[in-house]
Amino acid sequence: PSGMVSFSDARTPPFFTGSCLAELIGQGVLSEQFRYLDSDELPLDRPLYEHQECAIRKAVIEGRNIVMATGTGSGKTEAFLVPILDHLFREKERGALRPGVRALLLYPMNALANDQVSRLRKLLESCPDVTFGRYTGETKEEEKAARDEYRGSYQHDPLANELISRQRMRHTPPHILLTNYAMLEYLLLRPADNVFFDGPSAQYWRFLILDEAHTYTGAKGIEMALLLRRLRDRVTGGE
To answer: What is the pTM of this model?
Structure first.
């Protein structure tokens, strides 16, 4: 029939664009350290989507909490990673970048956490001062076993700033910790993992990223709300 449009002909309307990261650096919104990350993974001269720039400005300048509801492939990851990295870069500039969790990236399933780790490897290869680690049921306890498994999977050693064993993460907690909500429950309960929430290295918490938040509905949503309240009380001392 006349006027019929096939799925292959359909087009998603483009998002409005705003400033690029280089411009935000020039305006003093973001740290100069971002210049070391300029790559295909995070190009400094590519315009951000308007919603990305808005989220970055609100998080970095105003210290606001952000809820981003937008489609697949619309840059949600950059919207939360850039403020996290800016915070870590500012600490580095002040000489205050010590071991300890600053950001918890919480995922509903391991596959999403694994995808994010893969991206962090590429992004932080040129920034060895920022550490990251994935702590899930798949994470090996001992460093040697974790390294052997990593070499078997990738045929090379991990980056110096990727913490791949539970043992090493407990010894020097990463700046960016990735896990799932089921493992977070265990981390809060097990004495061996108190280092993430108590003591000198647990005083730096700043960001909590809840990816795929729309999946937490009904009973799961209630359980998640209670879990996050427990986490908040633990890292803030009930304040």
So the answer is: 0.91
